[in-house]
Amino acid sequence: MNFAHSFWDEPVVYAYCITIRPGRIKGWGMHKLQSDRYFHVSGSLRCVLYDGRAESSTYGAFEIHNLTRESPGLLLIPPGVWHADQNWGDDEAILLNFPTRPYDHAQPDKYRLDPHAGEIPFDWTLQDG
Known about the structure:
- The chain is an all-beta fold.
- It is built from no helices and 9 strands.
- The strands form 2 sheets. A 5-stranded antiparallel beta sheet has the order 5-4-7-2-9, with no helix packed on it. The chain has a 4-stranded antiparallel beta sheet with strand order 1-8-3-6, with no helix packed on it.
- It is globular and about 40 Å long.
- The mean pLDDT is 93.
C-alpha cells in the first residue's frame, strides 16, 4: 500500500475479502455514506458502475472496468454509485475492499438490487473478443 496515492486519502477503517465464483454476479450494491475501495487480488472480473446520483453530470452512465491477473487495479466507487461484479473467468475471483466507513450493524449503509431485474438496464451478456 502506498498511502501517498490519492486512492488512500481517507484512512483505512475497515477491510474485508469478497469472493465471486465463476459465472456469478455480485450486485447491484450501493452506499449512500461510504466509498468502496477495491483492490483486485485474483480472477477475471468485470466491475460495472452505474451513476445513480441525480445531481451528477454522469447520471445514468455506465463505467466498466475489467480486472485480470494481466491488468490488475485499484477501483474507487463513490457514494451513490451502484456497482456489480461479474466473474467471467474459470477461477474464483477475489477482491479486498477497504470502505471509507466501518460497517454499522445497527444501520447498514447498503442498498441492493437484483442484477437481472432490469431496474438498472445493463446487458450482462459477455461479448466475443
